[in-house]
Amino acid sequence: MTTCPPLDLMQSWVAVVEFESVSRAAVHLGVSQAAVSQHVQALEEFIGISLLDRTFRPARPTPAGLRLYDDACRLLEQANQIVVNARNVARAKGTTVRIGCVDSFAATICPQLVKGLSSSSSKITLWSGITPVLDEQMNTRQIDVAITTMGATKRTGISRQRLFSENYFVVLPRRFPRQETEDVGQLAKRLQFIRYSLRSKIGEQIQSYFDGLGVELERSFEFDATDPLLSLVAAGLGWALITPLCLWQSRHHLPDVTVLPLNTLHYGRKIFPPLERTFYMLWRRDELGSIPNDIRNIVSEVAQRQLAPDIARIIGIPEEALFTFPATGPGASSQ
User: Fold this and answer.
1) Which of 281, 292, 301 is nearest to 131 (CA)?
2) Residue partners of 141: CB distance under 8 A and separation at least 6
3) pLDDT tens across 134-158, in order?
4) CA-CA 20 to 30 A from 232: which of 68, 122, 197, 309?
5) Do 195 and 291 sit in the same domain of this protein?
6) In this structure, are residues 193 and 216 in contact, taking their beta carbons and an 8 Å threshold?
7) pLDDT score for 278
8) Which of 84, 108, 133 corresponds to the end of one domain?
9) Which pTM does this prediction carry?
10) Same domain, 193 and 282
């Protein structure tokens, strides 16, 4: 036996409460006043209670009727969303989904991401680049999904979700004679600091980190990409700050470098505090069906189950020190 009243009866009841009149509700619904009255009576018979206090003129909703109104509004909204969701999934499955992501993400996680999405979309195209470029491509609708390190968006109709964060590490030449803890000033005198350029989000973040600590380092080598940066470290020409994905992107250099936690460096008598880079997914609301949720699940699985164990084993850093993930639920926010 069903315990849920028919939706058309609840739709009539919602209209009666909102328009405070059976006749005005009928006009809104485009039906006769008699039809609305019959719906209200049928709903009362179905539930077994009075929804209207007819001792008043005009009749007023009873407390039970007002509670039913609140619940009916939510139920009707969910019912409408069922149709929208089904149409969105059908639309997404028949279209090309354009995903843009930063280079280190593209080189490490995207192969498995594209493979995992192949069953939910007819075609996936992948773009890679630095965060400011991808943000502009999202703004001009050149891509449908952006995976970047840009934490905020003011554009309407865009949903944003944190995927995961990765910690920064110190990377030194393998044969560099290091001490258990290094003063950054003394280290910079013995070995050049190699930095990402300020054109990149990662370079901007590292510079802001140093500025906050009051650390000034000579600007000698700057790169937009990881591979030339890490090649100079591997060749013994300098040291750098880097993340696990960037290391894995250029892992052919790993035999020639040493990776250390940030707290092995100090400035004055203070230990370097943690620094992390966070990846976010941005997409247009109500256009891609279940694909954003699929992306979140695949990325979490690849990073936690595949990349973390492999990277930890090679660089000698515990898995739990590499990445952090949202503690509960998808945590999406729309802006």
Assistant:
1) 281
2) none
3) 887 887 888 889 998 876 665 667 8
4) 309
5) no
6) no
7) 94
8) 84
9) 0.67
10) no
Indicate the burial class of 34 (C-beta count within 10 angstroms; 0-12, 13-18, 19 or more). Answer: exposed
CATH number (domain holding residue 25): 1.10.10.10
Instruction: Determine the residue type at 245.
Output: L
> In Å, how far are 57, 284, 326 from 289, measured between CA atoms?
48, 10, 22
CB 110 within 8 A of CB 249: no
Residues 156-190 pLDDT 10s: 678 889 999 999 999 999 999 877 778 898 898 89
- Domain identity same for 195 and 263: yes
Is residue 75 located within the same domain as residue 34?
Answer: yes
CATH number of the CATH domain containing 258:
3.40.190.10
Residue 322 resides in a domain: no
| 225 shares its domain with 285 | no
Residues 158 and 281 in one domain: yes
Distance CA 104, CA 249 (A): 6
* Residues in the chain, total: 335
Q: Quote the pLDDT of residue 335.
A: 44
Spatial distance between the Cα atoms of 205 and 190, rounded to a whole number of angstroms = 24
Q: How far apart are CA 11 and CA 9, in angstroms?
A: 5
Counted domains in the chain: 3
Regarding predicted confidence, which is higher, 328 or 197?
197
Domain enclosing residue 74, as ranges: 7-84
pLDDT (tens digit per residue) in 60-81: 899 998 999 999 888 888 887 7
Give Cα separations from 238 to 35, 257, 261 (angstroms).
Answer: 82, 11, 17
Are both 173 and 270 inside the same structural domain?
A: yes
- 185 Cβ partners below 8 Å, 6+ apart? 215, 267
Q: What is the pLDDT of residue 59?
A: 85
* Count of CA atoms in the C-beta half-sphere (13 A) of 261: 16
